[in-house]
Specification:
The protein is 32% helix and 20% strand. The protein is of the alpha/beta class. It has an eight-stranded parallel sheet. Strand 9, helix 9 and strand 10 form a beta-alpha-beta unit. Helix 12 crosses helix 13. The radius of gyration is 27 Å and the shape is elongated. Bound molecules: NADP nicotinamide-adenine-dinucleotide phosphate.
Amino acid sequence: MSKICLCLTGKTLTRNIEILEKNRKYVDIAELRVDCLEDDERFFIRRFPEMAGLPVILTIRRNIDGGYYVGGEGSRITLLAKGLANAVADQRRNFAYVDLEEDLEVPSLEEAARAFGTRIIRSWHNMEGVDEDLSGKIRKLRWIGDELVKAAVMPRNLDDVIHVYKAAKETKDIEKILLCMGEYSANTRILAELLDSRISYTSPADEDDAPQAAPGQLTPKEMVELYRFHDITDKTKIFAVVGYPLTITDSPAFFNHVFKMEKINAAYVPIPADSVDSIMRLAEEIGISGMSITIPYKETVLSYLTHQSKEVVSTGACNTLVAGPDGWLGYNTDALGFSDSFLAFIGKKDLRGRKLTIVGAGGAARAVAAEVYRLKGKALILNRTVAKAHALAEPYRFAWAGFDSRGADLMEKYSSIIIQTTPVGMAPNTEADPLEFYNFSGREAVMDLIYKPEKTCCLKRAEKAGCRILTGSDMFYRQARNQYSYYTNREFPPSLISRADYS
Ligand code: NAP
C-alpha cells in the first residue's frame, strides 16, 4: 500500500513539529528536509525522529535536484552522518529512511544506515523531463537489494505521464517510489497505487515560511479527504475531469464525495491534457472508466466517439465520456443541466415568446443554444469571433453579432434574458467582465454559467442594477448528477441532492 509522506521544509525543528501536528492525522511518514533548516538547527537533526513520533526520512536535497542545499558536498555528507550517528536499539528514535542520491557514493554512510535498520532510498531526480528509458533507469538505480529506489521526473506533457505509467508496469518487480512533479503530476500523486509507488509526497497548506518541497504536490488533507487516497487500490475504477488549462473545478469534490457516500470503489482525479489524442492514450493505459470533458475539448472530442447521444448530436458538443465495450460513448449533460436550472429559475416550462442574448459561442454556448431552440425561444448569439457566432446561430435561425455597435444595438431587442457562457470572469481572473460594454437596466434576468467564483463580476453588476440573477452552481450540480448516472448506471441518490451534502 502507498503511504503519504509530509515534506517538512520549516526553518526549525520546532516549526516542523508544529506543521506535522496540523497534518498528523493524514500522514504515515514525514520527510525532514534538512536543506531547508537554518544552519544552527542542523546540529540537532538527530533528535528529530523521537520528536516526530512517526517514521522519518532524512533528506538533504541539493539545488540541482530541486532542493535548497547550496553548501559543498563534504559538509552535506558530514550532516548526513550526523543524522545517522549514535543510532539506538529502539528504531523509532532513529531515522527510518535516509535519502541518498544515485551519484552519492559514501560506503561509511550506507554502513551506518544499515547497522541500525535505517533504510536507504536511492534517489534520482530529473527536473527537465522524463528519461526515455525510464524503466532501464529504475533498474540501474538499485545498487543493493534492500534499497528502496526513488525516481522523480518532470513530465512536460501528458505523453510523458503515459511513459511513466508504462515504466511503472515494466518495473513491477522492483520495490520503488515513482513520482511525477509539476503541472501534470496530480493524477500520478493521487494514483500512486497504480504506479506501484510506495510513497506519495505532500506539502502542507498555507505555511508561508515552509516552501513547497517539489512542484505540483498536493496537501495531505486534499489527498485523504478530497481524493480518498487510502481507499484507492488496483480494483478502483478511475474517473477524471479533463481539460487544458484545468482551472478550479468542483467535480472532484462532488464525485469523490458521492462515491464515498454510495460506497462505490471509484476515484475521480483531475487530468490536464495538452491534446485529446494523448488523453485517449492515457485512458487506455490506466483504464479510465469515464471522463468529464471541459474547456477546450468539448467539440474536438467528438471524432473519438463510437456513440453520440441525441444531445451530443443536437449541440455538436460532448462533456461526458463513458468507456463502452467498443469505444467511448459520448453524452452532453450541460444541455439539460442548463435548461432544468434556468426554467426552475424563471418558473416556466418553456421559452416560448422569449428573446434572449447568449454571450459566447463555445462548447457551453452550443448546449445553451440547442436548448433555447428546443424550448421554442429566440436568441441573439453575441461572440468575440463573429464567424463563430454566425456558425452557431445559423442552424437555429438565431440572430448573431460581435461585441460591437451592431451587437449592442441588436441586444436591445434580446436583453430581457442574458445568458453568459464565456469563461471570462472565471477564477483566477475574477475581475474580468465580458459585458462591460453593456449597462444593465435592472429589468433583465441574467444567468452566468461560471460557478467559480459563485458570483462573477458581471453578475454582481447586474444584481446591483436590480436584475434577477442565477449563478452557474445549480446548473453544475444538475449536470453532474446526470453524469453520475451515466458513469454508474444508477439513479442519483435523492438523499444527496441537497448541495450542502457535497461539501
Ligand atoms: P469554451 O468552449 O472554451 O468557450 C469559449 C467561448 O468563450 C468562445 O465563445 C470564446 O470566444 C469566448 N471567450 C473566451 N475568452 C474570451 C475573451 N477573453 N473575451 C471574449 N470572449 C471570450 O468554454 P466552454 O466549455 O463553453 O465553457 C465556458 C464557461 O462555461 C466556463 O467558465 C465553464 O466553467 C462554464 N461552464 C459551466 C457549466 C456549469 O455547469 N455551470 C457547464 C459548462 C461550462 P471566441 O469564439 O472569440 O474565442
